[in-house]
Amino acid sequence: MEIITDGFSWLTDPANWSGSNGVPIRVWEHLQxxxxxxxxxxxxxxxxxxxxxHTGRGRFISVQVANIGRSVPSLAILGLVFLIxxxxxxxxxxxxxxxIVALAALGIxxxxxxxxxxxxxxxxxxxxxxxxxxxxxxxVLRRLEVPLATPLIMTGLRxxxxxxxxxxxxxxxxxxxxxxRYVIDGFYQRENDRMVAGAILIAAISVLTDLVFTLLAxxxxxRLTSGSKGSGKIPA
Amino acid sequence: MGMLSLVVAQFEGEPIVRWQWIVDHLDDVWSRGLQxxxxxxxxxxxxxxxxFPLAVLASRHRWTIPPVTWAIGILYxxxxxxxxxxxxxxxxxxxxxxxxxxxxxSILILFRNTLAGLDSVEADVREAAxxxxxxxxxxxxxxxxxxxxxxxxxxxxxxxxxxxxxxxxAALIGRGGFGQFxxxxxxxxxxxxxxxxxxxxxxxxxxxxxxxxxxxxxVTPWSTPGGTRTVAT
Amino acid sequence: xxNHRMFVLGAGLLALSLxxxxxxxxxxxxxxxxxxxxxxxxxxxxxxxxxxxxxxxxVAEMYAQVLEANGYTVKRELEIADRAVGNEALTAGxxxxxxxxxxxxxxxxxxxxxxxxxxxxxAAALSxxxxxxxxxxxxxxxxNSTNVFVVLPETAEANNLTDMSSLAAVAGGFKLGAPPDCPxxxxxIPGLKDTxxxxxxxxxxxxxxxxxxxxxxxxxxxxxxxxxxxxxxxVDKGYVVLTDDMNLQANGNFIPVVREExxxxxxxxxxxxxxxxxxxxxxxxxxGQVVNDKRDVADVASEYLTGAGIL
Lengths: 236, 233, 311
Fold this sequence. Notes:
heterotrimer; A: mainly alpha
């Protein structure tokens, strides 16, 4: 257990907080990778989930694909994207691109499913009533379905964010940056304190992400009851 | 997936899948499959052994629910990658280093589902049992637990499927079951084992899910298809 | 009847894992090189490696197969991550022998002895240094596998690069791609700085002479990459190897390091029958078969041993 203390001592040593390998830079890299990936995943998955939920078209296939996609190990997604990048776009393979693509791919299924389920669970009679009042499809979506689906969409975003932040640690395996660097380099350079410090930081940042998105969800839906159901949080 | 395989299909020089390599490594498929199953099965079993009494305790003493949920919830949020490397200096390259995170993750799922299962027993059923002269212990084992079984099995399903995916990360310390193929593919730029590892671990997850669904039906023949499934958040 | 359900579930899970655990133990790593015991049975030996990469696994596998063919029972531990772990396993008796590299292993036991120069002298120094740890060595190979730093031909031409000394002037504009332990290794960043005054603009942690380093050099993600000298990729890709003109790198002749307890003249003769035949050429060829053709280490090793008349 002493090693955990060593990890914390490493974290409080000012020498580890400066330079290109310092904690602020690595945390920033980690957050940057995660944020870009989450944004891409959201931009793709939310509209898709809304369209599927609203029209009911292609829902079987997309839910199946998303479910299988969710059970593909994150290490494998990262590995596949990296190998493809080396083969197809070698000039970009050793930058942030493969990590961002892999992390976005990882976030899409859970956002998609939660968005779709969020829309799908809106009472059909209410929707019919709104249409009867003369609302257009777009209006029904915007004024009725999206607000009612917001808690579930936010749950999807939270689950995706936590998983992305957690998996960003693996970027170090494909020569990327972020906090995983401390873990992998500490492992190979026999610096257990650095390795443990990296693991502590990744754990802390994941727990914080969970908290922040829980708060955001409350802000986004202040009038609705909390404690909404998600469709399966997966540890990453 | 379809899109991915299209892109992979264009790998130059190296075929996407060298079938002969897979045939030559069937013994590895077997031994890694066993490792995968052992790690998953034993972790979830231990997880259940811990979560079950905790849930019984929590259903009796409701005030314990928030602190217990909070504590195991935090463990649940620690990424497996970080968890494994936190434990590495303490427990070394052993099964334990992988087992502890897997057990921790399954505890949350199983605790919630067991508690939900116990809670689903209606109060008048419980009172009727007490009225018939059953002791508290008898009420638990003869009434509450049997009624909670479907929800508990639903929890076991989720726990097992998620553990199967998580084991693959343990490849980094040589304990990853099918994940070992994935890491080999990544380390040697060799798509065959990488794809093999993906297909095998996804297949194992689907198989385990179906088997447990079957078990769920077997023990609760009265339940409707697709029956009880509690979601974990 | 209902109260059995919980039991059935628990017992089922337990039985499943116990069953699997029982089977799992027999899995192990002894893949068997195909050689059947022709002589009378001798002791059991555990053969390890000093790193889980093809070149070292090949030599370990050859030792294992020759020992098996001569009556030993051999267990293989070919996934040991690196030298430090392997050396600990050796002194702890978890493994009985492993192939090493003369000058690279030497500093683990004797920090002052010269690691390069006359191969026989370095091998002798290693032999003397490991004695105090209860270890012995046997003959070393003609093959010398050391670390090399490579650049693309265009980079070499544009910057007039021929040797490591010529790199010092331009390294400030270059990125280095090397294993993740490089910032700590005396043969890498610290050594390059002390010996040549080389300081790179940036360092990318990649792999141990593997495909990531090759791809990074090819794509221009790094200008300089560290590879193993017997990696056939260097020749295949036409990389320019920068000469180690100030002799920073150690000698990398293969040599078996063996626990004294299991050592014998017969064992030594068997190991020598493999080691002394290993040359740069045949090792490079075998590494190529594993790395490029994705052949199994055991198959390549047994083919070589049979072809060379050792088995």
